[in-house]
Amino acid sequence: MQANFSNGKIDCRQSRYHAGALRERHHHGRTWVVFTFAGSFALTMRSGENLLTPKSLLYVPAGEAHSNVFGSQGAGVFVTTIDPAWIGDRLETANPETEKPRIAPPGFLTGLALKMYREFQSPDTLSDLIVEGVFLELLGRWFREDHFSNRSAPPWLRQVKGFLHDCFRESVSLEQVAKVAGVHPSHVAREFRSAYDMTIGEYVRKLRVEFVAEQLAHPQKDSLSLTDLSLGAGFSSHAHMAAVFHRVTGMTPSQYRKLRTHQSSDRTSIS
């Protein structure tokens, strides 16, 4: 299914990928914004490896090389593509940001993505205007949020984020985080959520899942047991890690390891 809005400048489509599908390294001539509404997939870009889970958003600038491998349940995505010049003409102050890929966590800007998706599914004479307005609002809020999070957050909050990156595999309490920041626990909890659109606990969970995924993505680490990996990532047990990993990615750790090993084998055979 495919539709064009804003006099053909905004191309929207819905795509489904079967379980284990692999897309080798490629790039697009237009900028893509991808909303994952079902399933999950692993994405490799210059910035590293990432997991796209349900209700997450992906922004891929034109020309950005990337590869995809889809999860055990496949994936359903809503894709919006546009000419980079079209974005630049409308978001002049965000021009430098439009050249960088980005991923939004599940829940962030989901309402706007779903509004576009509903117009796509049931268009009428006003859909063209609505889609353009919603899409520009989505990009504007996304770039502004990233600008605040990465550049305008107070030094103590950036220090908290760095502390979590260093200690996410350990048991960390809100009191410890507050002590690092030098502020009250309730204040650090409130300001962290405001700046990064997730709680401290959710951020630690995200870091742990990303750590596990990175370890599973390398065939040379196949000898590492999942139990050892679970404990090394900060989970209380293999069962705990498997449950969280599946809830976030839609795959078990074993399924994810198998998919990434298959992807690596395909690359080797092609080269």
- In CATH, the topology of the largest domain is named Jelly Rolls
CATH architecture of the largest domain: Sandwich
Average of the residue pLDDT scores: 82
* Residues in helices, as a percent range: 40-55%
- In total, the number of domains comes to 2
Task: Kindly describe this structure.
Helix 2 (110-121) packs antiparallel against helix 3, helix 7 packs across helix 9 and helix 8 packs across helix 9. Strands 1, 2, 3, 4, 5, 6, 7 and 8 form an eight-stranded antiparallel sheet that branches. The protein has helices at 84-90, 110-121, 127-152, 155-167, 174-181, 185-196, 200-216, 226-233, 238-249, 253-270, and strands at residues 2-5, 10-17, 22-26, 31-45, 48-52, 57-60, 66-82, 102-104. The protein has 271 residues and is of the alpha+beta class. It is globular, with a radius of gyration of 20 Å. The protein folds into two domains: 2-151, Regulatory protein AraC (Jelly Rolls, Sandwich), CATH 2.60.120.280; 155-270, Arc Repressor Mutant, subunit A, CATH 1.10.10.
Present the secondary structure layout.
Layout: E1 2-5, E2 10-17, E3 22-26, E4 31-45, E5 48-52, E6 57-60, E7 66-82, H1 84-90, E8 102-104, H2 110-121, H3 127-152, H4 155-167, H5 174-181, H6 185-196, H7 200-216, H8 226-233, H9 238-249, H10 253-270
Concise overview:
The protein has 271 residues and is α+β, with helices and mostly antiparallel strands.
